[in-house]
Amino acid sequence: MTQDRTQQDCQEQSVSQMMCCASKCMKILMSLISLVWIALAIAEIVIGSVYLNSCVNQPYIPIYLIVNGVTVILISILSMVSAFRPNKFVLSLLTLLSLFWFAWLITGSVWTFPLYPDFSPCNRVVYLFTFSILIIQWIILGLSLPMIIIKLFTILVESSELSRCVSRTLERVRLVKGTESIERYALIAVCQQNDDVVSAGRPSRVIDVMST
């Protein structure tokens, strides 16, 4: 029984370490992608402002560049903030901005793609830049789908680990203390603050913490 328990704890620890490594790598990758997006967004704002009145047959193309640039900068900054310091308000705002960005991407595509290849008298620079930005964004959106799926999977696994930690701790505390009057949120806080409890499944550490 003890051996089975030890093997189970080792397996849980290995899974937790793998997910932790994947989560850190995801944060670094997302930060690098955000920096690239910010650079492109600044270029969009500059070109859209310079050629604001240079696309007679579709005057909304420069406006698309400016609004898209501002939106992308906000999304990139909020993404980096939420990656290292998760916050419900930031996540909610990020979700709304992402939905707006997707809708704005579709709108810009409707304004831009029908003019190709005969986009004259629209300025060549602003049109081809917008056309290229739209293509890049659609490609990145398609490539980002696996990353989004991995991120969701990571969140589910971490939630499952936390739930198991709380369940084991409740059972051990009932056995040791002989009471069921345990604050569940306090246990969750302790589990989150002690990575060894979540990863290695040592609820006795939680009992020691709660006793002090």
Automatic annotation (TrEMBL):
Keywords: Membrane, Transmembrane, Transmembrane helix. The chain crosses the membrane at residues 28-51, 63-84, 91-113, 125-150. The lineage of its organism: Eukaryota, Metazoa, Chordata, Craniata, Vertebrata. This is Uncharacterized protein. InterPro entries: TMEM272.
